[in-house]
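Morning run. Coffee first, then this:
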Amino acid sequence: MVDALASLGIEELRTYWASHCAPGTVDPLPQDVVKTLLAGLGLNVLETLRYLHQERPSHEQFEAWVGERNGGGLTEASLSRLRRALAGEAVGAEVGNLDHVEGLSAEDLAHWDEHGYVILRNAISPEAAELAETAIYDFLGMSRDDPASWYRTSLGHSIWVPLLRHPALVANRHAPRIHKAHAQLWGREDLWVTIDQGGFNPPESEGWRFPGPHLHWDATLAEPHCLELQGILYLADVAENQGAFSCVPGFHRTLKQWLKSVPAGQSIHEHARRTLTMKPIAAKRGDMIIWHHLLPHGSSPNRSNRPRVVQYMSLRPTRYAYTEQWTS
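And here it is:
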């Protein structure tokens, strides 16, 4: 393990710190480098920005905070992989050799090409999924078998659960099948997994109505339209009416033409919500849905009798093509 007080020896981290705490002194890092840097250091994007902007730490304090966030979990091997990748060297998969790991089938890949999403069956074991599901219930102070507990104020009026580093969630981020499937879709293995949160979408009740997110994109719609992947891991079985992840299948193939049809002066998102219909995607405990970020997507109202419990994560290569201009 790396001493939390020792310098991490990553110049990009100093540049990233300076771009937020001493603006104007450095040129900001490219967006893909920032995402690789934070993922490689086990940092969540929002918590890191919140810390930098609220605390205005020195660089030394920032490095110490990075170590504290990881609880001693950073190793010299993981830091070396990150340094080499940022320097432009080829690095393999974080979880080791993927040659003999079962990934997506030919049928899965054909489904991806046509529909822009795919279900990775048994991405993790049912046991691993249940451990993460239990961690989310425990974090929220709820009981899986007590419906009255599902609406406690610990959830708020949101389906997001800001649980980031529970060992069960961390273990899921290192599942070989998840890395193999993403390597197939990206065509490369130098991938970095986001430190993302969980989700809890209880059945709608008189006092709790689904708050969204409704149909949206988490991507710029400006051209060129580039590849990026998003993912959601089902920690328990999810039926179509159970607040399932929903999307407009195949829309990544028609987005460019559809944008031309949006009436002048109208919001793209509002027009999409009026004219597009999302499909809810059911899947089993331990399955992962991976989708092209240009698919309109969202969650859905839960009209079943069980909560939807999930873990979000995305995997991206060290450097990749993206569009800087933001259009929504």
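The longest strand covers residues 229-234. Good start to the day.
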